[in-house]
C-alpha cells in the first residue's frame, strides 16, 4: 500500500464508521491530511466538544485523548498510538499538587492542559498555551498557583502584572532544552528572520522573540506575515508544515532539540489499524476522574470563549 492508498482507505473507513479524526499540529503531514480538524490543544478541545460523529480518533498524546473523552462522555474515543504520552503531563501527581496547595492557601489552582486527568480533578481550571493569558485574567482570584510549567506560568504572569503567581518546577523537556545562546546563534545565522516561539520555552528565549504563541498561533502568524524568513522555536514538525503552506517563504528550526519523540510516534498505519478495530487504545477513565476533570476542563471552555 502506498501512503496515498492508505490515506484513501482511511477517508473511506472514517466515513463508513462515523468517526472524526482530530490531529494535533505537531503530527506528520501524512496524518494532518486525513484529519477532520487540526490545531493546537485548545482548538482540539473545542472541536472535540462540537464533533457530530459518534467516535473520535485522536492523533496526538494521551492527555489530549483524555480531554476529548471527558468533553464527550457519550462518544467512543481512541488514542491512535497508545504509547504517545507527554512527559510534562506525567511530572506532577494529584498528591504532589495537594501538598503544594497547602503551601498556598487562598490561591486558585490553574493547571496547564498538559497534565493527567487525575491531576485536573485537584484544580480549579485548566488552560492551554493559547488560552492561558485570557483565562488567568478572567479569573476572580488575583492569586494564581500555576502548574506544572514555570516557563508558560512566567510568560502569563508577565502579561498580567496586577496578579500574583506562584509557579512550580516542571516543564517541557524539549522546549526547556533551548538556550538563549542557541537562539542568539540562530539569529546571527539568519539575521532577516523573525523569531516565533512557544511559551513553553525559557524566558531567556521568549524575551528575544518577535512573536510568542501556541502552535496554531505560530502557524497563523507566519502565514499572515509579510516577512520572508522565520526561525521556529517549537516542535520541528511546524517547520515542515509551514514549508508546505508557504512554499515562497523560508523556515529554519531554532534547535534540533525541538523534536518531540512522543508526538512523532503516531503513524498513518496506527490510524488505519484503529479504524479497522485492531489498534489504538479506547480511552476509559474512572467515573470520579471523568467528573472531577470535567469541571476543570469545562470551566476552561467557558472562560476561554
Ligand atoms: P499547543 O497548546 O500550542 O498546541 O501546545 C501543546 C504542546 O504540547 C506544546 O508542546
Ligand atoms: Fe509534551 Fe513537550 Fe511533547 Fe508538547 S513538545 S507533547 S509539552 S513533551
UniProtKB/TrEMBL annotation:
Nuclease found in the keyword field? no
Q: What's the Enzyme Commission number for this chain?
A: 2.5.1.72
A GO molecular function term, named singly, is:
4 iron, 4 sulfur cluster binding
User: Into which EC class is this enzyme placed?
Assistant: transferase
Q: Which GO terms describe its cellular component?
A: cytosol
* Pathway field: Cofactor biosynthesis; NAD(+) biosynthesis; quinolinate from iminoaspartate: step 1/1
InterPro entries (UniProt xref):
NadA, NadA_sf
Q: Does the keyword Chloroplast apply?
A: no
What cofactor is this protein dependent on? Answer: [4Fe-4S] cluster
Q: Which UniProt keywords apply?
A: 4Fe-4S, Iron, Iron-sulfur, Metal-binding, Pyridine nucleotide biosynthesis, Transferase
What Pfam families does the annotation carry?
A: NadA
According to its UniProt entry, the protein's GO biological process terms are: 'de novo' NAD+ biosynthetic process from L-aspartate
Q: Which NCBIfam families match?
A: nadA (TIGR00550), PRK09375.1-2 (NF006878)
Q: What is this protein called?
A: Quinolinate synthase
